[in-house]
Amino acid sequence: MLDIYYTFGKVASDDFIKYVLQKYYNKPNASLRTTINGKPYLKGDKIHFNLTHSKGLVALAVGKKQVGFDCESLAGKARPAVLSKFTERERAEIHSTTDFYAHWTARESYVKFLGETLAASWRKIEFVQGKIYFSGKETGIPVTQFETENTVFSICGDYQKYNIRKIDFPLAGK
Predict the structure, then answer these.
(1) What is the pLDDT of residues 41-60, one digit of tens each?
(2) What three-state secondary structure class fits 49?
(3) For the chain: N or C, fewer Cβ within 10 A?
């Protein structure tokens, strides 16, 4: 089971992570570390999490297994310059802004799952017919997608079920 928490308003990423970990996982004063590519984690802890944000929404996915998580607001427009960088098979599946962001977030969630950078991995990744391919080979790593609050979300990892909870962060907007 994956738990997803999200909020709107101004909140620093680390503050949101620490708040959720303290309130819902009994991790007071969590000491966040980051990988060389900037992915936050708790040293020596079995909790896995990944943060994403888009147009004022901040969201955190928390589970017991590795997870990549990304979102994009559907209020934006598909970016033609980026669209041209998708593979031919992907472009054949992209017919709307929602399709564009579904493909974008799937790719981004896989990059975050690996703990890599988009720049280093973009050309190696493909999202076709709901599956992630890396260097031309299917990864077998599931991607789950959903929409809420006019935002498309992608979860990369072995999670068949998820709970989503909108929370009011105490300091948001202050």
Answers:
(1) 998 899 999 999 999 999 99
(2) strand
(3) C
